[in-house]
Amino acid sequence: MNFNQTTKIKDVNYDGTMQPIITFVFNKSWLQEDIATLKQLIVEKISKLTEVEHVIGADRETVRLAYHQQIFILNFECYSESCWLEAESESDEAGLYKLYQQITALSTNDCIF
Question: Which pTM does this prediction carry?
């Protein structure tokens, strides 16, 4: 089976302590070459979420996303297979929980939570 066809979001969590973040866990191990598919699984969940910039590093990729005049950063760290979304600034943090609520309210084939 193809990675694209079988990959799903296994779990999504919001942590509002310290610096608020949304963490994503996928149902299988992934590599840096899989990030485009993982990003698509997340971005497609929220209408009007648009990609502003995509920075590719040696073992980490960062995607700046715009949503209702707020900027969020989607991070992928390959060695630890970590994925998290954070607000770019303190003024954008209020919108982060709203994004979490939208993501978890959606029930699609790409989610198993």
Answer: 0.89
